[in-house]
Specification:
The chain is an alpha/beta fold and 309 residues long. Helices cover 39% and strands 20% of the residues. The strands form four sheets. The chain has a seven-stranded parallel sheet, with helices on both faces.
Length: 309
């Protein structure tokens, strides 16, 4: 009998990590998961390890021990807002850390297929759905770091023949995402007001933005399918292709509360530069797309906060 397929996930301790781990486990994989610290709530059956992506020796040891057929890099400074505050650290983690990973994979697991998670923030502004062929011109440190990551992936494909897939992932959400991100931020505030039983005020940023937001479980399903299905393409938009106005999603969240909630704009939550419209053309991954209703996802996040003691 053939052994299980093996996958190594870097940055497995973040929001997406546990979802991706379950996606692979439920589909018969042997999973090794790495982050800068061991998880508080480990998933049974996973081989956990500690590695700092900025330490090349850590990364090499992790790849050598795991002997993976597939490698996924989730490790990143992944918030646009945070990247404005720490641009140097963003470049270190997202570019130098990725270089350590692909160098280790090239040396120690040369036949492995590698998936590097990039971002829709790489694109130039556009008023219609973004296609992979559209111009790249990030307007924030996070997006710039992901363009650099993609450029190095291209270089390593050409020079070493490595199998590296790059995603340009659009916004995704779910239970466990931090309140640095818009949906959990709104849900956490609204649920706290609802629990108080009294009217309250919710603090928000730019409500006019239009975004492509998906359930994280749909995103990780696509990551697995991209690794399992070699393609002539090497760059893939990963998103729903549905345009949501942030204001409409806020109104839905407020409708879940049983008390009146007033909305106030907080200047601190407005980004230095913001894209008014950010939605993907997901043609390249549509055959893998599950299409979970975002309203169901949001209700789950709201209820999670509402039920917290």
């Amino acid at each position: 009998m053939m052994g299980k397929k093996s996958v190594l996930i870097f940055g497995a301790g973040g929001f997406v990590g546990p979802y991706l781990i379950r996606e692979f486990l439920e589909n018969g994989y042997s999973v090794a998961a790495s982050d800068t610290r061991l998880p508080v709530a480990p998933v049974p059956g996973v081989q956990y390890g500690v590695a700092d992506l900025l330490q090349a020796a850590d990364v090499e040891r992790t790849v050598r021990d795991a002997k993976p057929e597939f490698v996924v890099n989730l490790a990143a400074i992944s918030s646009v807002g945070q990247s404005w505050k720490i641009p140097q650290k963003t470049i270190e983690v997202n570019v130098v850390g990725t270089l350590h990973l692909i160098d280790a994979a090239h040396a120690l697991a040369p036949s492995a297929r590698v998936l590097l998670v990039g971002s829709s923030e790489e694109y130039a502004k556009k008023k219609t759905p973004l296609r992979e062929e559209d111009p790249i011109a990030a307007n924030n440190p996070y997006g710039i770091s992901k363009i650099a990551q993609e450029n190095f992936a291209s270089l390593y494909r050409e020079k070493y023949g490595m199998q590296i897939i790059c995603t340009r992932s659009f916004n995704h959400t779910g239970v466990g995402q931090t309140a640095q991100f818009v949906i959990p931020d709104f849900c956490m505030q609204a649920a706290a007001i609802d629990k108080s039983g009294k009217p309250g005020v919710i603090s928000v940023g730019n409500l006019s933005a239009v975004r492509d937001i998906s359930d994280v479980r749909d995103i990780v399903h696509v990551y697995r399918m991209l690794l399992e299905n070699p393609s002539a393409n090497v760059v893939f938009n990963v998103g729903s292709g549905i345009a949501y106005k942030i204001e409409d999603l806020l109104h839905y969240i407020l409708s879940l509360a049983s008390v009146p909630i007033r909305v106030e704009i907080d200047p601190e939550k407005l980004r230095p530069i913001d894209n008014p419209y950010h939605v993907c053309d997901n043609t390249r991954i549509r055959e893998f797309w599950k299409g979970t209703d975002l309203h169901d996802t949001i209700r789950g996040i709201f209820n999670h906060y509402r039920n917290e003691t």
